[in-house]
Structure formats: structure tokens, C-alpha cells
Specification:
single chain, mainly alpha, ABC transporter involved in vitamin B12 uptake, BtuC, two-stranded antiparallel sheet, two-stranded antiparallel ribbon, 11 helices, globular
């Protein structure tokens, strides 16, 4: 068995893979947060609960309607995104002209309500969600066996993150969204329905969280607490990358996942805090984040 820095190779690469998978979920969740904050100035603390809801919708589609994983990848984000649309129209739209603190408190309360409803109905114990047959098994890379589903998660997350970045930064729609955040009355004067655009943007950010939840369902047990276990780290990722920075959230999410995985190999005691140590260092040296713009 070969070793690297005295660490058995399979152990090192296995932890790197786990870190990369966690990084994929950090990137997708922080991407949705960055879209919502960057374009709507709302700190969406309910994001973890909506991630959990995506996993539960996939589970319910399978167990109640017989709809499998591949259709759930499409239907669960649409269903949860529609729920987010209703939330935005009925509650969140009332907070846009208020201080950020009001949005944080409202979405934090919504997260508690959503998690409490699912916990009351399904309990706190996790429920399994089977890996689709096409992605079962593993591939021998020579230096390690790569589980096919975990490889799929990393690739899918990269594709989704790249597509979202291209949509926001390189298309006419993205340009209108960014312009509406700077001067909504001017954009509306050109015939653009800004309130509808804002609503769809929030629903899109929520749908990204739900899609991450569907991808996570076969890896982590589907339970009401699965979002809360991610959300603190995800907010740290957004802060480190720069609040509202799309590319910052994606690169920081994957990077911190890898750092976390390596820490579990070389200094396991610090694995739970390394992300927040990095956040403290970044805020001391670059208060706007690695890719953020100073106010």
C-alpha cells in the first residue's frame, strides 16, 4: 500500500473525495444564497430548510407516487421553487426596503417552522433514499475506487454552478437582473416587470437549494435536520467568497470542502472548526470576502 506524507493513499484520497462531495453541496447551497442576497439583498436563513424540503419531496415522490430519482431531479426543484415563489409574494416581498436584520429574522423563523412541521410528521430519524440503479457500484481509478454516484454528484454540481454563473453574468436576462438591483425604477421604465423578475429570482435560488437536496438524498439520510447541519458552514462559505459573489461562492465552496477533508486526515480535531478559522482570517484581511466588492 502506497503512502503520501505517511498517510495511506486510499485513506487520503477517500477523505479528499468526501471533502469534494461536501464542497459540491456547499457550492450549490451558497450559490443559491449568493443569488438571493446579491440580487434581492435578503439573507435567506431558510435556505437549509428548503434544501431539506427538496430531499423530502424527492422521497415523497418515490414513496407516494412511484416517481424515481431522475424525474425527481426535475420535479422537486419545481415544487419547492413554487413554494418559494409563494413565500416571496406573501412575506418576503414586504421586507425589501427594510434593514437586512428583518429578512434574517423572518427567514430564520420560517426555517424553524418548516423543520418543525417535517419533524412532527416524520420524526427525527433518517429515512433512506436508494441510489438509482444506473449510478450504483464504483469505478476503479487505480489508486482508489470511486463510487459512481458520488462522482455524479460532483459533476452535476459543477455543471449547475457553471450554468448559473453563465446565466447571471453572460446573458441579457442576467444583465437585467443586475441592473434591477442597482436601479429598479429605471429598468421598469424600459418595460421590464421588475417585481415578477424578483419573484422568479427568489424562486430560482430556492430551486437550486431543492436540487442540492435531491442530490444529497441518496448520500445522507433524509431527515428534518439535514439542512441545519449544513447551513452554518454554507453561510461561512458565502462570507468568505464575498456576499453576493456567484463565482466566489462556487470556488470557495469546493475549496473549503477539500480543506475540510484534508483536515480530517492530518488534524481531525480541527475539522469541525477549520472553515470558521478560515472565515476569521479572511475577514481580518479582506472584510468584503475573497471575491466581494467593498461597500
Amino acid at each position: 500500500m502506497f503512502t503520501i506524507f505517511g498517510i495511506p493513499g486510499p485513506l487520503l484520497f477517500g477523505q479528499l473525495l468526501l471533502g469534494l462531495i461536501n464542497g459540491a453541496f456547499y457550492a450549490m447551497l451558497s450559490l443559491g444564497l449568493a443569488v438571493i442576497f446579491g440580487l434581492l439583498n435578503i439573507i435567506n436563513f431558510a435556505h437549509g430548510a428548503l434544501f431539506m424540503m427538496g430531499a423530502f419531496v424527492a422521497w415523497m415522490l418515490l414513496n407516494y407516487a412511484g416517481i424515481g430519482y431522475w424525474w425527481a431531479l426535475l420535479l422537486a426543484p419545481l415544487i419547492v421553487g413554487a413554494f418559494g415563489l409563494v413565500l416571496e409574494r406573501t412575506l418576503i416581498s414586504r421586507l425589501y426596503k427594510l434593514d437586512h436584520l428583518y429578512g434574517l429574522l423572518l427567514t430564520f423563523g420560517l426555517a424553524l417552522v418548516i423543520e418543525g412541521l417535517f419533524r412532527n410528521e416524520y420524526g427525527s430519524s433518517g429515512m433512506p433514499y436508494q441510489i438509482p440503479s444506473a449510478l450504483q457500484g464504483a469505478t476503479n481509478l487505480g489508486f482508489m475506487f470511486l463510487p459512481n454516484y458520488r462522482g455524479w454528484v460532483v459533476v452535476a454540481a459543477l455543471v449547475v454552478c457553471l450554468a448559473t454563473w453563465l446565466l447571471i453574468e453572460k446573458t441579457k436576462l442576467g444583465a437585467m437582473l443586475r441592473a434591477a438591483t442597482e436601479n429598479a425604477p429605471l429598468v421598469q421604465a424600459f418595460g421590464v416587470n421588475v417585481p415578477r423578475m424578483v419573484t422568479l429570482t427568489y424562486a430560482g435560488g430556492v430551486a437550486l437549494a431543492a436540487l442540492a437536496g435531491v442530490l444529497a438524498a441518496p448520500i445522507y439520510s433524509v431527515n428534518p435536520n439535514m439542512g441545519s447541519s449544513f447551513i452554518n458552514t454554507v453561510f461561512a462559505v458565502v462570507v468568505i467568497g464575498g456576499m453576493g459573489s456567484i463565482i466566489g461562492s462556487v470556488l470557495t465552496g469546493f475549496g473549503l470542502g477539500i480543506i475540510e477533508g484534508l483536515t480530517k486526515v492530518f488534524y481531525p480535531e480541527a475539522s469541525a472548526t477549520v472553515v470558521f478559522v478560515v472565515m476569521a482570517i479572511v475577514l481580518l484581511t479582506r472584510p468584503a470576502g475573497l471575491f466581494g466588492k467593498a461597500a
